[in-house]
């Protein structure tokens, strides 16, 4: 893979991650079924990918199992809350609310690891906060927009915790192997809730869910990991900041979810915060690929 091909693969991966909310809204079934199906299809696709690529797997130790179980639980909660936000408030608010995770990461790192929050990180939190105020049309808890945003913020918080969990074990397991096992944990967590509703899903719903699992999870993650062998992590981070842009643009075309000027301004601030956060993280670990990325 050369530089140009890797850059193209990154944009395709960002587009697939951005389509997560769109496919989730197209699937007319519960968030529990969507997340179970997405994880199950992702496991199958990732297993096929690792078999074709003949990637070597690390032997799992007790600490790996604990970390993967915790990461899978957080990933399950992140996805369920995200798809609830999509159902309640639409793709744009759900995507931008989830995109608040860099601010949560800054605050959690300061709280959990007792790291002093630097001035540029404080600016990042401020940008996200102002962006979220602009994204929300009103702050009536009874309104769908506010309720959806709160679910999206929970999704961002859980994703931030997932990122910190993955970073704690970064380097021991190949990223694709960790993603496969975490998706397996997600499927097992959601199976008891999804099982009674599995037969109710329409064939078209399962098509959207399969696309979620294969393209928006397995393929997007694999493209991201493969491209980092050629592209610098900070470049990849900037490209993946386009994920909300792709998602909102496609939702605008498919569902006529036209964002207001205020929402667009809020989105610009949140995406700017993502770029700043990602570049800061990339400068600290320029070649490390997280085990989970995107929605």
How would you describe this structure to a colleague?
- With 295 residues, this protein is mostly helical.
- It has 13 helices and no strands.
- The model is unreliable at 286-292 (pLDDT under 50).
- The protein has one domain (3-284).
- The chain is globular, with a radius of gyration of 18 Å.
- The longest helix is centred in the N-terminal third of the chain and has 28 residues, at 62-89.
Query: What is Rg?
Result: 18 Å
Strand content: under 5%
The total tally of domains equals: 1
Residue-averaged pLDDT, rounded? 83
Please describe the structure with a list of short key phrases separated by commas or semicolons.
295 residues, mainly alpha
Briefly say what this structure is.
77% of the residues lie in helices and 0% in strands. The protein has 295 residues and is mainly α. It has one domain (3-284).
Helix and strand topology:
Layout: H1 3-18, H2 20-26, H3 31-53, H4 62-89, H5 91-98, H6 101-112, H7 119-135, H8 144-168, H9 175-194, H10 203-227, H11 233-240, H12 243-255, H13 261-284
Helix pairs in contact: 1-10, 1-12, 2-4, 2-10, 3-4, 3-9, 3-10, 4-5, 4-8, 4-9, 5-8, 5-12, 6-7, 6-8, 7-13, 9-10, 11-13
